[in-house]
Automatic annotation (TrEMBL):
This is Acyl carrier protein. The keyword Ion transport does not apply. PROSITE patterns: CARRIER, PHOSPHOPANTETHEINE. The lineage of its organism: Bacteria, Pseudomonadati, Pseudomonadota, Betaproteobacteria, Burkholderiales. It comes from the Bacteria. Residues 94-119 are annotated as: Disordered. InterPro entries: ACP-like_sf (IPR036736), PP-bd_ACP (IPR009081), Ppantetheine_attach_site (IPR006162). Keywords: Phosphopantetheine, Phosphoprotein. Residues 9-89 form the Carrier domain. SUPFAM superfamilies: ACP-like (SSF47336).
Length: 119
């Protein structure tokens, strides 16, 4: 998909670093991040923080998965954020059947369809 490749470990390290940087700038306590940490509820990041995070990560990775691959509204956890960036480097185009992000995307699509049906 992209010329530059980032392995899972490197992607996790870069995403965790970017989240930690935003938390530090906000004066939030430093902590070891876990995949199930919720960006808003657990870590205390606002929608503005998330926008800054996506901008910082776009500079880091040279691409934004939220333009075409993943709706930003489906990303709620650190693990889902990592998953979105891992998809940038997935040449197979196959989703992991245990992918938490894919589940969140499917739920987001179902909500969108229900809203459209109410119309």
């Amino acid at each position: 998909m992209l010329n530059q490749r980032f392995e899972r470990h490197e992607t996790e390290r870069l995403v965790h670093g970017a989240v930690s940087k935003i938390m530090s700038q906000r004066g939030l306590p430093a902590r070891e991040l876990r995949e199930d940490d919720r960006l808003n509820a657990t870590l205390g990041l606002s929608s503005l923080d998330l926008a800054q995070l996506v901008f910082d990560l776009e500079l880091t990775f040279g691409a934004d998965p939220f333009q075409t691959l993943v709706p930003i509204t489906s990303v709620q956890t650190v693990g889902q954020l990592v998953g979105a960036y891992l998809r940038l480097f997935d040449d197979t185009g196959l989703a992991d059947p245990n992918d938490e992000l894919a589940d969140a995307q499917a739920a987001s699509e179902r909500r969108r369809q229900r809203r459209g049906a109410r119309g």
